[in-house]
Automatic annotation (TrEMBL):
Residues 1-56 form the Bulb-type lectin domain. InterPro entries: Bulb-type_lectin_dom, Bulb-type_lectin_dom_sf, G-type_lectin_kinases/EP1-like, Kinase-like_dom_sf, Pan_app, Prot_kinase_dom, Ser/Thr_kinase_AS. It holds the Pfam family Pkinase. It comes from Eucalyptus grandis. It is an enzyme of class 2 (transferase). Gene3D superfamilies: Bulb-type lectin domain, Phosphorylase Kinase, domain 1, Transferase(Phosphotransferase) domain 1. Its EC number is 2.7.11.1. This is non-specific serine/threonine protein kinase. Residues 297-571 form the Protein kinase domain. It catalyses: L-seryl-[protein] + ATP = O-phospho-L-seryl-[protein] + ADP + H(+); L-threonyl-[protein] + ATP = O-phospho-L-threonyl-[protein] + ADP + H(+).
Amino acid sequence: MLELTSEGDLILKDADGTVAWSTNTSGKSVVSLNLTDLGNLVLFDKNNLTVWQSFSQPTDSLVPGQMLKVGQRLIPRVSGTNWTVDGMITLSMSSSGLSAQMETSPPQIYYEYSIDNPNASNESPYVEFVNGSLALFSNSTTNVSVISVPQASSVQYMKVGSDGHLRVFEWVPGWKEVADLLTGYLGDCAYPTVCGQYGICSNGQCSCPASSGGTSYFKQVDNRQPSLGCSENVPLSYLDNIDASTCKETCMKNSSCKAAIFQFGLNPTSSNCYLLSEMFSLMNIDKSKIFYNSTAYLKVQNVTKGAPNTSVDNRRSNRLPVILGSSVGALFVVMFLIVVTVLFVRKRDANEAEEEYLDQGTLFDSTKVAVKHLDGFGQVEKSFLAEVETIGSIHHVNLVRLVGFCAEKSHRLLIYEYMPNECLDKWIFHKSNKCVLDWKQRNHIILDFAKGLNYLQEDCKQKILHLDIKPQNMLLDGNFNAKIADFGLSKLIDRDQSQVITTMRGIPGYLAPEWLSVAITEKVDVYSGLVILEIVCGRRIFDHSLDQEDIHLPSLFKRKAKEEQLLDIVD
């Protein structure tokens, strides 16, 4: 029974009279209740002011006109089939955008829609279900980005399910699913519970991790329902106080760690290690979609034959085994790494579109300019807005100058001052003697580079994070003065902000270690000073034409420094 009490509290009573739910509004002068045309249940006081409304108390659903504000989240209702993940999946709104994740420690994000420059307005961003879209707003008037929803021909609502999907339903009559909003580039395998715990998703099919050394450590929970996941054949036991020199050894000594995910970079020194306290579904790597190589080390109980030996040496030799997946790096945990992978793939595709430079054009006054052509939507649109907002509002001798821009439908043009000597990489990664810089020129370029970065970090009204410093984005004028270009990935932060939370951006090799943490500062661009090494050595950060030990320039630099033979690598 639903009752509006004389004290002004709206309560829901169970069959036995106990209170199952309440608005907790007693004593707040509530005098009336109204259900609006949009479906918002509102309690008013005697001055007709809103005291409480259901739209501000989201559960697992949104209806048209309802907002999800910063700090609010949708939580799926209890699942009738999978109780292990109840309450762990959430769709939440934060100051940096909309994200869906498993509420583990740390959270394992499987979907993210970011807002660029979330702090540009004093108002908090929010997401609203409007007809035809789930729209993200940076403030009350500016629509930042949109997730498309089928146009409504009747009543609609969207609900996040216990499987992590955000589905849109429409009255036909009868409720019919008309859209699945979070299922994108990687399909159903991107969801963290699609194959249950330890289950591996490949092309929509679920299986258990392969056996290792003739021993099978996992089995299907139910052979008739592979999606329920896998269980360990032998319960876990843990070893403590073991020295950790590798990723898997660190997991071994951590009693709460159930798996270690080792993500390979282009060189072992650039690899990342993630320790997971909860295991959900994994997926096999699809080379056509994912270009990062990863291996999952799953902690299991060692199965030994014969009597146990308690000597220290044998204890060390009986460390928990690991299971290697397929030949390409094998198992991939979606929940934490998938966001990073998708972002890098999108970034790579966006770069191909963004870096399409047209031939020089000449203005009416005979001034030569360079025209950059961006064509498309999504990330390309964000890149265009980022460049106009940052480089369009500042001026410095060591930053390329934006002369003008044009936006018509999906076409975007950025007009820059013409730099006759083009990109720095043409001059430092030379293959002939035609393009060689002397040491005076190189020293001058390095100083220009530092002055440009210093201006972005210290002298602008808002601190500017470039986030894509590399030789290709350093342009040279006719006198070999260097200017920083391409602000398509840049981000503005207020002067009083010490750090910012954002999605990973940039190119492997130039990414600072801070990207592995939750928050970064403007100093992430300082790590891109590796460009100085490239200028001095005349080679790229990664050069696969060299011997294995010389491929990674910083590692080579470190080794030569120890050997006191640094001149060996100077150009």
